[in-house]
Write a structure and sequence with these properties.
Layout lengths: L33 E6 L2 E8 L25 E2 L5 E2 L19 E6 L1 H4 L14 H7 L4 E6 L15 H10 L5 E5 L2 H8 L6 H12 L4 E4 L12 H14 L6 E4 L19 H18 L10 E2 L1
Parallel strand pairs: 5-6, 5-7, 7-8, 8-9, 9-10
Antiparallel strand pairs: 1-2, 3-4
Length: about 300
């Protein structure tokens, strides 16, 4: 099954059927699963980071999650995939929109791990928790692990579906942000029998009709499981799903991501890219589910 470079530490869901050797990683070890609670007066690490690894390469890391991603949000095109593209950086500001989502669960892969990593973002004000707090989120749970997909998982890891379902079973009620799909696209391309649509349906079932924001995917790769063509297929599947889920919105990150924000693997981001991504996701949540009124449409770009 496809496997991609990822943060060496917590999870990396391995694709189902075929599996290709994971490319070596050079990223610093980071936390795999993190639960962060935001207090009204600041950010509090509720459960802290899970034990970081020493940076060893995992057999199947961020599936596609860390190999290729983010071209830039795109506007819905004829084929259903987002196309076109802005390249401006979305930054939180005093005049930025506020969200009606007070409690949020964010489930992601290695590209989310980077957004909460002091190694990637030394300035805590640039990390995901602070960005969410800036738009009005007061209770945040971030569950991220490298190589994660919705279906597959490596030994000792939890896939995206099970991670999200655990929050619901524990009583969480609120808004959901799913920053997944990079590895799922690669796994399906590698031969998984679980379709793109079925994967999206699994995650949507966890929310039980509550607000859901998906962050679409993008890579700079032209070949292999994490090729951008496979990521585009995933993004198109997300767009098609909008007709079935009125509670669903898509943040067109693919149109925002800039080439100079990517690392050499074509999937993960450097510090500048991580800072921009964290701010953009939080801002997108506020525009998708604003504190007053309604979003301008199902696709936020």
């Amino acid at each position: 099954m496809p496997s991609g470079p990822d943060h060496a530490s917590s999870r990396h869901d391995a694709p189902e059927p075929p599996r290709s050797p994971a490319p070596p990683r050079t990223w610093p070890a980071v936390v795999g699963v993190i639960v962060v609670l935001l207090a009204l007066t600041g950010v509090v690490l509720a459960s802290g980071f899970s034990a970081p690894s020493t940076g060893a390469t995992s057999p199947a890391r961020d599936h596609p999650a860390r190999t290729a991603r983010h071209q830039g949000p795109r506007a819905a095109g004829p084929a259903g995939r987002l196309s076109g593209g802005r390249t401006d950086v979305v930054r939180a500001s005093p005049t930025a929109p506020r969200t009606s989502c007070r409690s949020v669960v964010h489930v992601g892969d290695s590209t989310t791990v980077d957004l909460i990593s002091p190694a990637m973002l030394p300035d805590s004000a640039q990390r995901l928790a602070a960005r969410y707090a800036a738009v009005g989120v007061t209770s945040l749970h971030v569950n991220a692990s490298g190589g994660r997909s919705i279906v597959e998982e490596l030994p000792g890891q939890v896939n995206g579906y099970d991670a999200a379902r655990a929050y619901w079973n524990e009583g969480f009620r609120g808004c959901w942000v799913f920053a997944l799909g990079t590895n799922d696209a690669a796994n399906v391309a590698a031969g998984s029998r679980v379709s793109l649509t079925a994967r999206i349906e699994r995650m949507m079932s966890v929310a039980h009709g509550e607000p859901v924001l998906w962050v679409n995917t993008h890579t700079q790769l032209s070949t292999g499981p994490w090729a951008e063509s496979n990521e585009q297929a995933w993004d198109s599947a997300l767009v098609r799903a909008l007709a079935q889920y009125p509670n669903m919105r898509i943040f067109n990150w693919a149109a925002v991501a800039r080439p100079d924000w990517f690392l050499s693997d074509g999937i993960h981001y450097n510090s500048a890219g991580c800072a921009a991504r964290a701010a953009a996701i939080a801002d997108a949540l506020a525009r998708a589910f604003p504190v007053s009124g309604s979003s301008q449409g199902p696709i936020v770009s």
